[in-house]
Specification:
- The chain is globular, with a radius of gyration of 12 Å.
- The chain has 2 helices and 7 strands; from the N terminus they run E-E-H-E-E-H-E-E-E.
- It has a single domain, classed as Ubiquitin-like (UB roll), CATH 3.10.20.
- The chain is an alpha+beta fold.
- Bound molecules: FE2/S2 (inorganic) cluster (FES).
- FE2/S2 (inorganic) cluster binds next to loops.
- The site of FE2/S2 (inorganic) cluster has 14 residues, from loops.
Length: 94
């Protein structure tokens, strides 16, 4: 998947049950920040690892350069500053 073919999807916050729509042109990190969900971040480019967030359900579309291919394949965490979702919803361990 590339930026040209990005689609919207939903993220659910596991601890609260809140669901947010992530628009095609906006990152999970930015969407959640606007909604008042705090996630630490630094590079916003998938490099530093600061925004690492656990994933409970859903299939991640990994786009970072931080996780190893093995770590990405586990599908239990992702980088919300740049990565997206292959499934219609990601449930985040937040
Ligand atoms: Fe650096 Fe997400 S903010 S990897």
């Amino acid at each position: 998947m590339s930026a040209e073919t990005d689609t919207s999807f939903e993220v659910e916050i596991a601890s609260t049950g809140q669901v947010f729509e992530i628009p095609a042109g906006q990152s999970v990190l930015h969407t959640l920040m606007f909604e008042g969900v705090d996630i630490p971040f630094a590079c916003e480019g998938g490099v530093c690892g600061t925004c690492l967030t656990g994933v409970k359900r859903g299939e991640v579309d990994h786009r970072d350069l931080y996780l190893t291919p093995d770590e990405q394949a586990k599908n239990d965490c992702f980088m919300p500053c740049c990565s997206r979702s292959k499934s219609t919803r990601l449930v985040l361990d937040l």
